[in-house]
Amino acid sequence: MTRSLAADDAAELIRRAYEVGPPRPRPLPHAPPGWRVQEQAAGGTVAGRLLGKSALVTGAARGIGRATAELFASEGARLVLSDRDGPGLAQLREALALTPGGVESVVGDVAEPADARRMIETAVRRYGRLDVLVANAGIIPFGNVLEATPESWDQVMAVDGRGMFLTCKYAIEAMLATGGGAIVCLSSISGLAGQRNQAAYGPAKFIASGLTKHLAIEWAGHGIRVNAVAPGTIKTDRVRLLGEEPGGASYLDAIRRMHPMGRLGEPVEVAQAILFLASDEASFITGAILPVDGGYLAQ
Fold first, then answer.
1. Residue among 170, 201, 251, 296 flagged as catalytic
2. What is the C-alpha to C-alpha distance for residues 97 and 194, in angstroms, rounded to an integer?
3. CATH (domain of 202)
């Protein structure tokens, strides 16, 4: 039987689960936003979908990364959170301070090899292993090819491209030492189809899609699954701010109409897809790029 619980109750139940040790893996039902636990009929053991698993979420201070961190915490994960935004990361860590599995934070830039390696090493040092990487860190410059500059191109490729490559590289090194793991990369509808005003961002997300497929094939035989989500337009802070720029409101209205469901997505809706791909429920899925786009790519 599955039931929703208040955050404090769920935290206590997951804490008790840690005391008796993690249960044998078993499929759990799809969990809506917020704290949920699964009570097994035999013995009353309480299990989260990521109970006892060590997970690194990059770009965790806001948006999809923050929603993923909060959801992973509610599912029993042992967290390492990273971002360049130190104050934002500190605020999130404080909000998740009572997470039973533990929370570590690393302020750093995924595009810097030393920082990217430090994020992985923090998980291994604190929890003994890395089970899940969510390669989420990214920036979203808007503009056509005439408006883009060499500097803006280099910046998005450094974070969205090089940063994803580095965190995946070091995560795979760590996962090989402990028998496998799961990686979820953040691609985009712009990484699967052409869009206007995405001259720098779109190609960077094609890197995410390509990297996902190549790594999935390379490491499938070593117990490492690599998948991606491809969000449509999501109501992150960056998208909200776009509405305040000249012409931004009409642009967002046009984008909204391009999604068959007639609305923009919420960060937690992407986080739910990430959770599924990171969990044992997706144990026979690798190399997939899952659209979370309100039907955009189905047109």
1. 201
2. 41
3. 3.40.50.720
